[in-house]
Amino acid sequence: MRGLLRFVAGLIVVMVLAATPVYAQGTVPAGHVKTVTGTATIVRDGGATPAKPGAPIYASDTLRTGADGAVGVTLRDDTRVSLGANSEMKVDRYVYAPAEGGLGMVLRFLRGAAVYVSGRMAKLAPDSVRLETPSGIVGVRGTTVAIKVGA
Fold first, then answer.
1. What is the mean pLDDT of the chain?
2. Which pTM does this prediction carry?
3. Any idea what the Cα angle at residue 78 is, between residues 87 and 29, rounded to 5°?
4. Distances from the Cα of 102 to the Cαs of 13, 95, 97, 121, 128, in angstroms?
5. How many angstroms separate the Cα of 6 from the Cα of each of 1, 3, 15, 77?
6. Three-state DSSP class for 37?
7. E-state strands within the chain
8. What does the pLDDT read at residue 2?
């Protein structure tokens, strides 16, 4: 009986330790806000908060700018994205764990104007980076891209 209790306790400890890295990865920001001018917000979990320099950006966040707004973001792999006035972009997916072979980015540009400057991910695995617009998908091969999405 005592051996069974030790076995169960050991099994629980192993399960908790195995689940910890998965939980920790989910809370790592994709990047952060570098610059803000005028009105810019981060939409997360249905709520909007003003974007401020240093604020974290997570996968599934949406960035929005107002008529007087602009925002610059730096992602963990040194990818840089700048949004102009009346723009909106959703970070659909962001995984940057090159040591574990986890690379993937999907940025969805919904409206407005943006400039994308590729970082390390595009150099390591170009096929893992995708920029989407309502009318097309851009594959990135280590470059700078200007995007304009009309009404």
1. 86
2. 0.80
3. 75
4. 26, 6, 5, 10, 9
5. 9, 5, 14, 44
6. strand
7. 31-37, 40-44, 47-50, 56-57, 62-65, 70-75, 80-83, 88-97, 102-117, 129-133, 136-139, 144-149
8. 56
CB atoms within 10 A of CB 16: 9
The domain tally of the chain equals: 1
Amino acid residing at 25: Q
Judged against a pLDDT cut of 80, whether residue 13 lies above it is answered with no
Which secondary structure element, helix H or strand E, spans residue 60, and what is its range?
none
DSSP 41: E
What is the pLDDT, as a whole number, of residue 3? 54
What domain range includes position 41? Answer: 2-149
Sequence-distant (≥ 6) Cβ neighbours of residue 63 within 8 angstroms: 40, 41, 42, 43, 51, 57, 71, 73, 83, 87, 88, 89, 90, 91
